[in-house]
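pinging the channel bc i need a second pair of eyes. not urgent but kinda urgent?? the chain im working w is below, pasted from the shared doc
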Amino acid sequence: MQLSPSAHADTFCRDNLPPPGQWPDLDLGLAGLSYPVRLNAADELLDATIAARGADRRCLLAPGETWTYGDLAARASQVARVLTEDLGLVPGNRVLLRGPNNPWLVACWFGVLKAGGVAVTTMPMLRTAELTTICDIARVSLALCDHRFTAELAAVPGARIVTFGADDAADLTALANRKPPGFGSVATAADDVAMIAFTSGTTGRPKATMHFHRDLLAVADTFSARVLRPGPDDLFAGSPPLAFTFGLGAVVLFPLRAGAASLLVEKATPAELADHIAAFGVTIVSTAPTAYRAMLAAGKADQLRGLRKPVSAGEHLPGPTWQAFYDATGVKIIDGIGSTEMLHIFIGSAGDEIRRGSTGKEVPGYRAAVLDAEGKLVPDGESGRLAVKGPTGCRYLNDPRQQAYVKDGWNITGDTYIRDADGYFWYQARSDDMIISGGYNIAGPEIEEVLLGHPDVAECGVVGIPDEARGQIVKAFVVLRAGMAGNDAKARELQDLVKGSIAPYKYPRSVEFVQTLPRTNTGKLQRFLLRLRNEDAGST
C-alpha cells in the first residue's frame, strides 16, 4: 500500500491510519473508477459541476430559501477564507460540525474540505459526554456550530466554538459575508482524509472511520450513478442527518455529483416528510423502513406517487412493508445495505431487478460474499457472515477493532446473510442478534416480517432471551395499532400466525405488548435495548 504525498501539515489522520497489513483490499478497478493523485472532493462536487452545467442551477432547497450552485460555491469559499485567514486552520486540522440539515451546515462542510481540513459532522442531539468523547478521539481543534445548538458543546472541555446562523457580528455567517467569494482549494491528495464519521454503535466507545477525498466520489460513482441513475432535474431529500454517512450521500454527495438539487429538512415526522415530497416535487428520497410504514399509516400514499427512487437503509426492509408501499403508490422501494465503515450502500438493486424481501445484488464496483467462521465461502442457500470489498473500506482511527472488521482483505459487516443461486443477498440478522434456541439458529427479522403481516401490528422487535432449558427463547415486543388490545388472546393469535407461516420452532414463546420500541435517530431498531429491558424486568 503506497499513499500519495499528503497536503496535510497536521498529519494526525495519516499517523493514525491502521497498519498496512490491517487494511481491506481496495479496488477501484472493479468499478472502472479513476481519480487523479491530487483531488479535492469539494472542487469536484462544486466547481466541476458548475463548469459543466452552470452556476445558476438550483442546488440546495429548504423551506423558505433556495441556493444555487453559485451561491453554495461562494459561501463555501468564504467559509474557507474565515477558517484559514481568521481562525488559523491548517490542512489536516479536524473541524467538528454541529447542526441540523440546512444550507449553512452544507456550506461549512464544503468550506472545511476546500481549506484542506477534515470534517467531523455530528448529530445535534448528542450530549456533552458524547461530544467530549468525539473531540478526544478525533483531536478536534475547532467547532462550527448552529447557534441554536451550542449548549451541550460549550460544556466540552477546551471547546473552541464559532457559531453560524446568528445575528451577531462574530458569527460565521457575518464573518463570511465580509470575505470575497473566491478561494483556491488546497490541493489535497486523493487519499488524504476528508472526513471522520463516527459509528453510532450499540454499546461502548464509538469507532471513528476515516474516509478519503476519493471515497466521497466513489460512492457517488457507484451506488448513485449505477443504481439510482439520477439526472440533473432530480430533487433529492431524506431524513438522515449529515452526521450519518447514509444522509451525507443521500442529500449532498449524490445530488451534487449529478448536478441535481437537494431538499434539506431540519426536522420532520414521516407524515411531514411526505408532505414536503409532494410540495417540492421530490423524486429520490432516502429514509428508514419505519418511516415508509408511518407515511402509509398517516394516509400519505397520494403524496408519494411522484417518487422515482425511494431508498431504504439503516435496517432491513421487511417484505410486507415493501409490498404495502408498492400496492399503495405503485413505486418500488430500493432496499440497500451499507455501513459507516464502507461509507454508503454496497448491495442494492433498482427497478425490475428488485426482489421483494431481498436486499438485492452487489452494487457495480463492489464484491460481496457469504463466509463461514473460518473465512471460507459457504454454498449458495446457506447462511454465513457477509463480507464485502470494493473502492471503499474500513479504516478506523487508531482502533484495535480494525482487526475484527477486516479479515483477509474482506470487510466483515457483522450481518448474517444468505446468497441465492441468482446472486441475490437475503438478510437474516445482525450476527450478534441471531437467536439460538434448542439448537436451532433463528433470525429475528424473519419473525418480525410475519408479525408485521398481521393487520393489528404496527411495529415489532424480536430478540432472544435467556432460558434455562433451551438456552434462549424467542421473545416478541409488539406495538399494536391504535385501539387494539394487547392481551393473552392476542398473543396466542400472533403466535399461531407465526407457527402457520414459518417453521413452528421459530414462534415467539413470549409476547410483550409495548407502547414504543427503542430506535436510533435514523429509525434503526435497537434490539440490545429490548434485551436489556427484558433483563431489567426480570430483576425487579
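so The radius of gyration is 23 Å. and The first strand starts at residue 58 and ends at 62. — does that match what u expected or am i reading it wrong
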